[in-house]
Design goal:
By secondary structure, the chain is of the alpha+beta class. Helix 4 runs antiparallel to helix 5 and helix 5 runs antiparallel to helix 6. The chain has a six-stranded mixed sheet, with no helix packed on it. Strands 11-16-13-14 form a four-stranded antiparallel sheet.
Length: 347
C-alpha cells in the first residue's frame, strides 16, 4: 500500500509565509448573502432529464465567487454550464480573521437538477435493463452487461433515481473488470445521491474505503470511514474497519512516503485531498501546467514542476491539490513526513 523511495534530490518550496499566531480558530466563516438558483436547461427539461453537478470555489475577500472547478457531474454539460453561471452570481459576507476580510478557499456545493413533478423511482425500461445487467454480471457476461449500461447511458430520459442506480451498476461492472480507478469514480457518483437504500449506500461506502486505502488516498479514506460510522446503525461494519482506520492514522504520523498515482482526465484536472503538509511531484509523463494548493483560508497557484517539495504552513489547515495539464498526463504525488530531510527554500 505504501511505497518507499530512495533519497530524493529535492528542494523545498514553502507555500507562503504565515505567522504561527494566525490560527484558523480565529476565523469567522463567510455567510451567504445571495444565492442565485441555476436555470433548468430547456432541452433537458423537455426530455425529462435530471442530473447533478458538484463544484468547488473560492470566496474572495470582497464576498464574490471565483476559481470555480467542476469536480464531477452526472455528465450533462448543460447542467454544468448553468451551475457555474449561477454560482458566479453568488455573493457572501466574507470570512473574517482578526477583524479583517479574508478569502475562504475550500467551498463545495452540489446542485441537483430535479423536475418538480419528476418520477419517484426508476422507469420500467430502466428496471428491465438493470436486471439484464445484474444477470449478465452474475454469469460473467461482461460484454452483454456493457451493452445494457451503454443503452441506459444513452437514454434521452435519465432521472436522479436512475442516475444513482446506474453508477452503482457501473461500479459493479468495473469491479468485475478489475478497473479499480473507474470503480472508485462510479462509487463516488452513486454516493452523491440519497436515493439509494441505506444498505446499498453502506456497502458502497465500505467498498470505497477499501479502494481509497489501496490507492493511498488516505485523507479520503478516513473521511469515508466517518461516513460509514454514520450509516452503520448496528456498528458491525464499523467494528471491522476501525483497526484499519487506526492503522491509517499511524501511517500518517510515521516516516514512510505516501505515494499516489495521478492521471489528468477529460476535464484536464486532477484532484487530491492531502493528508500531510508536504508533497512533491515525480515521474511525470506528459504536460502538467499548474498546481493549485487550496486550503481553508489560503490558496496559491504555481507552475507545475517536478522534483521539488511544497511545504504548507500548519495554519493553512486541511488542503487539497488541483493539477491542470493535458489529458492522460501521468505522475506520482508523494506525501512526505514532517521531518523529511530537505533544504528549506521559498516560493
Amino acid at each position: 500500500m505504501i511505497g518507499l523511495f530512495g533519497a530524493l534530490p529535492l528542494m523545498v518550496l514553502a507555500a507562503g509565509d504565515i505567522e504561527d499566531s494566525l490560527l484558523l480558530e480565529t476565523v469567522v466563516n463567510a455567510k451567504p448573502l445571495e444565492r442565485i438558483h441555476p436555470k433548468y436547461p430547456v432541452l433537458a427539461a423537455k426530455s425529462g432529464k435530471e442530473g447533478w453537478v458538484r463544484l468547488s470555489y473560492v470566496i474572495r475577500a470582497d464576498g464574490s465567487v471565483d476559481n470555480l472547478i467542476v469536480e464531477d457531474s452526472s455528465g450533462e454539460r448543460d447542467f454544468e454550464r448553468e451551475a457555474m453561471r449561477a454560482i458566479r452570481q453568488w455573493t457572501y459576507e466574507p470570512a473574517v480573521q482578526d477583524g479583517k476580510p479574508i478569502e475562504q478557499c475550500q467551498n463545495k456545493v452540489q446542485m441537483d437538477f430535479a423536475l418538480q413533478k419528476g418520477p419517484e423511482g426508476v422507469t420500467r425500461r430502466f428496471l428491465s435493463r438493470a436486471r439484464k445487467i445484474q444477470d449478465a454480471l452474475e454469469n460473467g457476461q461482461l460484454d452483454a452487461a456493457r451493452v445494457q449500461l451503454d443503452l441506459i447511458k444513452d437514454s434521452p430520459k435519465w432521472n436522479l433515481y436512475e442516475d444513482a442506480w446506474y453508477w452503482m451498476l457501473d461500479a459493479r461492472y468495473q469491479e468485475h473488470k478489475g478497473n479499480e480507478k473507474a470503480e472508485l469514480v462510479s462509487i463516488g457518483r452513486a454516493l452523491m445521491s440519497e436515493r439509494l437504500p441505506e444498505p446499498n449506500r453502506l456497502y458502497l461506502a465500505q467498498r470505497r474505503f477499501q479502494l481509497e486505502v489501496a490507492s493511498n488516498r488516505l485523507a479520503d479514506a478516513l473521511e469515508t470511514f466517518e461516513r460509514i460510522e454514520q450509516l452503520d446503525q448496528d456498528g458491525e461494519v464499523t467494528a471491522v474497519l476501525r483497526p484499519y482506520a487506526k492503522q491509517l492514522r499511524q501511517i500518517l504520523d510515521g516516516e514512510e512516503l505516501v505515494v499516489v498515482d495521478g492521471n489528468i482526465g477529460q476535464r484536464l484536472t486532477w484532484q487530491h485531498k492531502l493528508s500531510r503538509s508536504q508533497f512533491s511531484l515525480v515521474d511525470n509523463e506528459g504536460d502538467l501546467e499548474s498546481v493549485e494548493v487550496r486550503c481553508q483560508n489560503q490558496y496559491s497557484t504555481y507552475k507545475a514542476v517536478t522534483d521539488v517539495i511544497w511545504k504548507i504552513p500548519p495554519a493553512w489547515g486541511q488542503c487539497s491539490v488541483y493539477l491542470r495539464g493535458e489529458e492522460n498526463a501521468s505522475f506520482k504525488l508523494l506525501e512526505l513526513p514532517q521531518n523529511h530531510d530537505a533544504h528549506l527554500g521559498q516560493i
